[in-house]
User: Which sequence fits this backbone?
């Protein structure tokens, strides 16, 4: 496994691999890798001759009330995880390497950002789109892997790749869950013992909603109310949002049909948890 910290060295390495006609799988991350990231790396390893992992905490996707400096980092552990999952190259640049000067061209995401988590994080996905554009150009992957847990990010990246004709495939990977259904997250450690027992209700409420739809309920407002009631009754968390939207365009719908997402965010005392189910017609 090779650790690369400069753009020039990465370009040279990718050029050499491309000359051998190797397929490249890419997993972009901000580091502090957990089992969800491992799932992405395993899938990339299965489907490609070469795997590139980026570890870069991207400052331009942090809002004014979000602490870039406080974001957890453990590159030594990330290297260990990457090695165990068969990564070939880790790209771990500094901020000055990725942004050596003020950008002369900015990216603005016009759609899919004014709902769910994006509604309270204006500009966040502009920063995501900017860094991914740079990384996609540098790595030149055949496939890029993203977790479905952050379904809004997957939708935004899908739009970016389609709008700008990036020659790569976006591969969404299923959310990794604990045995009781709770979506794995680095935030789970901040739950109190009582909250940890309550937290699986989030996923159970989503599954309940899916069963309602299978049984013929197509009114999104009624389904949202049932989810809301269950979370209020069975947890101490405060609901940030519960939404049912078309997917991946994330537009509001009056009738639940076609491809859609049921998504929620709930705030506990020291952790804000998100989860979703995505239903896509085969």
Assistant:
């Amino acid at each position: 496994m090779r650790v690369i910290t400069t753009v020039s060295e990465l370009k040279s390495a990718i050029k050499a691999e491309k000359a051998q006609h190797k397929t490249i799988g890419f997993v972009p991350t901000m580091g502090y890798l957990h089992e969800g990231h491992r799932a992405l790396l395993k899938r990339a390893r299965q489907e490609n001759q070469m795997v590139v992992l980026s570890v870069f905490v991207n400052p331009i996707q942090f809002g004014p009330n979000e602490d870039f400096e406080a974001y957890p980092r453990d590159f030594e552990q990330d290297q260990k995880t990457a090695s165990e999952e068969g990564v070939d190259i880790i790209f771990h640049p500094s901020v000055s390497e990725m942004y050596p000067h003020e950008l002369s061209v900015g990216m603005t995401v016009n759609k899919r950002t004014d709902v769910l988590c994006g509604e309270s994080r204006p500009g966040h996905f502009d920063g995501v789109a900017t860094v991914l554009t740079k990384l996609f150009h540098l790595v030149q992957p055949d496939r890029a892997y993203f977790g479905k847990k952050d379904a809004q990010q997957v939708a935004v990246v899908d739009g970016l790749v389609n709008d700008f004709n990036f020659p790569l495939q976006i591969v969404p990977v299923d959310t990794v869950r604990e045995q009781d259904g709770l979506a794995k997250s680095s935030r789970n450690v901040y739950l109190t013992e009582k909250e940890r027992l309550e937290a699986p209700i989030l996923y159970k409420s989503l599954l309940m909603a899916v069963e309602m739809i299978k049984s013929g309920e197509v009114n999104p407002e009624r389904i949202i109310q049932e989810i809301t009631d269950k979370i209020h009754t069975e947890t101490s968390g405060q609901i940030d949002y519960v939404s049912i939207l078309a997917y991946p365009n994330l537009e509001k719908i009056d009738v639940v049909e076609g491809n859609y997402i049921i998504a929620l965010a709930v705030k506990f005392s020291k952790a804000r948890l998100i989860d979703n189910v995505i239903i896509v017609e085969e």
